[in-house]
């Protein structure tokens, strides 16, 4: 039974959670609800408090204040078999084969031996390690080790996956492979929480994001809502003809151009349609697009503002 709060079913709920290490406050009064069946990104710069928060959810370390509920229970020990946790520091038995280590953890996670024997080759194939099944962990490359760690985390098909920097050390092909698996698990109703400081990973995957800096919440919302409310003042323009007049328009603050391609930054209150009306009868417009800010740009703007306020 999942924890229900204000008619929203959540897989993880943190209420006023704080954590100190000596005099340093790593996490400050964090209150977060993670919707069941979603992919939720813990984002922030290095040292923001992401890993500390994930470790508190897993009860590896305890919060100094606040309450954490996971899969409807205040005691994670009662629901541990329904959780898969992939820590930032990878740790597999180096002398065991890929098959051996995956079989071992499958049984540790509560799968009957017959079911474990069925799933192990399936997961080795799923993460592209079938041809390395008999290799010892110490013989695997960093990327292969990473994929095996993911298979260990997910082999029992847990209701909740908690992944700390899951794409670290992977090339683009294998990053896409794990992303496909994560999306598939979400589509089957699983909840995925993952931390990263690389924004384009979150942008492709997350339903909701938590952006933290210095242990404090900067932003917590659905990704679509975050991008929708961040009004863009930049228009991407491709045109034929003399475009020099554009930089002198009252509603334009800056123009970056290369050949027929321009990025036009407007004044804060300007409507992009005003720009279109100004140019449409003077040049031939091949492309006119309001540039949606990337999550990376939103991250830089918000974190920069947050750091400026604290300085």
Order the strands across the largest sheet as they lie in space.
6-7-8-4-9-10
The parts where pLDDT drops under 50 for at least 5 residues are 1-8
Share of residues in helices: 25-40%
Number of strands: 14
Number of helices: 9
Q: Oligomeric state of the chains? A: single chain
* N→C terminal distance: 45 Å
Name the helix and strand elements from N-terminus to C-terminus, one letter apiece.
Answer: EEEEHEEHHHEHEHEEHEEEHEH
Evaluate the radius of gyration. 24 Å
Beta content comes to 25-35%
Structural class label = alpha/beta
Question: What is the molecular shape?
Answer: globular
Report mean pLDDT, rounded to a whole number: 88
Biggest sheet statistics = 6 strands, mixed
Keywords:
disordered N terminus, 14 strands, 311 residues, 9 helices, single chain, 4-stranded antiparallel β-sheet, alpha/beta, 6-stranded mixed β-sheet
Question: How would you describe what is shown here?
Answer:
- The chain has helices at residues 50-57, 98-108, 113-126, 142-154, 172-187, 199-205, 223-229, 272-279, 295-310, and strands at 3-5, 8-21, 24-35, 39-43, 65-70, 83-86, 160-164, 191-196, 208-213, 216-222, 234-240, 252-258, 261-266, 284-290.
- 34% of the residues are buried.
- The protein starts with a strand and ends with a helix.
- By secondary structure, it is of the alpha/beta class.
- It has nine helices and 14 strands.
- The longest helix has 16 residues, at 172-187.
- The strands form three sheets. The protein has a six-stranded mixed β-sheet, with helices on both faces. Strands 1, 2, 3 and 5 form a four-stranded antiparallel β-sheet that branches.
């Amino acid at each position: 039974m999942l924890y229900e709060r204000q008619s929203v079913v959540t897989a993880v709920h943190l209420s006023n959670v704080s954590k100190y290490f000596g005099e340093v406050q790593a996490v400050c009064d964090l209150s977060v609800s993670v919707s069941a069946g979603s992919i939720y990104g813990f984002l922030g710069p290095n040292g923001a408090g992401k890993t500390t928060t994930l470790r508190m959810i897993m009860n590896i370390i305890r919060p100094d204040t606040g309450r954490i509920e996971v899969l409807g229970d205040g005691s994670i020990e009662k629901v541990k078999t329904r959780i898969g946790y992939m820590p930032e520091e990878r740790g597999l038995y180096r002398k065991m084969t890929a098959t051996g280590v995956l079989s071992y953890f499958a049984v540790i996670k509560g799968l009957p031996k017959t079911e474990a024997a069925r799933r192990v080759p399936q997961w080795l194939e799923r993460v592209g390690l079938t041809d390395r099944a008999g290799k010892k962990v110490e013989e695997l490359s960093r990327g292969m080790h990473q994929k095996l760690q993911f298979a260990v985390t997910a082999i029992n098909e847990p209701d909740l996956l908690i992944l700390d920097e899951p794409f670290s050390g992977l090339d683009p092909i294998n990053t896409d492979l794990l992303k496909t698996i994560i999306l598939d698990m979400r589509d089957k109703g699983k909840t995925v929480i993952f931390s990263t400081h690389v924004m384009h990973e979150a942008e492709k995957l997350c339903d909701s994001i938590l952006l933290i800096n210095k242990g404090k919440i900067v932003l917590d919302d659905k990704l679509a809502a975050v991008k929708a409310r961040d009004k863009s003042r930049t228009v991407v323009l491709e045109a034929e003809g003399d475009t020099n007049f554009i930089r002198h328009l009252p509603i334009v603050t800056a123009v970056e151009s290369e050949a027929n391609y321009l990025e036009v930054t407007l004044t804060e209150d300007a409507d992009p349609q005003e720009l279109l009306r100004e140019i449409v009868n003077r040049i031939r417009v091949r492309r006119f697009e309001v540039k949606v800010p990337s999550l990376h740009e939103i991250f830089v703007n918000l974190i920069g503002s947050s750091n400026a306020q604290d300085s």
